[in-house]
Amino acid sequence: MNRTVYVNGDYLPEAEAKVSVFDRGFLMADGVYEVTSVLDGKLIDFDGHAKRLHRSLSELDMAAPCTDEELLAMHRELVVLNGIDQGMIYLQVTRGNPGDRSFVFPDASVKPTIVAFTQNIPNLADAPAAKTGFKVISIPDIRWGRRDIKTVQLLYPSMGKMMAKKAGVDDSWFVEDGAVTEGTSNNAYIVKGNKIITRQLTSDILHGITRASVLRFAAEAQFEVEERPFTIAEAQAADEAFSTAASIFVMPVVEIDGQAVGTGKPGPVATRLREIYLDEMRKAAL
Ligand code: PLP
After folding, report:
1. Which among 21, 109, 148, 170 would be 20 to 30 A from 232, CA to CA?
2. What is the pTM of this model?
3. How much of the chain is helix, strand and coil, in % rounded to 5?
């Protein structure tokens, strides 16, 4: 691949895109990130991602690396420079390079590091997995207590993905105190009749940008939305289940811990919400 990558104000060939070994993102996972999807060469839900980036930065007392206008211009420039029609933009901001390793945060003279790169995924909207649905297993949620901050501490979610892979399925759903929190990199939902159930927003889960839009569209489409925890047993007995994230939009979940959900095929509610989401977000894309 020969992408053009953004590093601290410069657009560089990917082989030349580098950060210091002293960067706190590398040494301490002291950084936050966002993933914005691209459809038809346009950014999906950009304002939501920019807003959550600010929240993550402020919760960690980290300086914003640039203005929102600059952030938008940079995202658009990466789309153009890399000829992206469908795909994603990964953005990461770290507390920067203090020139040494220390547990103490550096002072304000150390500027944040900002990097961004594109991922070209030609069939993002038409992903084959959306037609068959995800199979998931449940695993204990042993992540830290501030999952509402989108940090780059992704080792356990990555291990969760590997546990899923080893089990021959697509993803893992985390369980804490008997209830589902979320997926390794997505929010989790079940459907019972006309009701869509998903865990309420606390520091237990990431406040998904796709979640916010999907719940808004669901309410507009006259679905009832209930925000509360649910168990794996309740999910297995539900009519449908699904996950949402910028990278998968609305993804039907058809099997949990080896047990089929509903018919074991993508259900009408998840399928309809995926269609509505894609239609509406395409209209509002920047
Ligand atoms: N939950 C977790 C743990 C995630 O990592 C993600 C996305 O990466 C989400 C939920 C979904 O968030 P969004 O819809 O903003 O992509």
Report:
1. 148
2. 0.96
3. 30, 30, 40
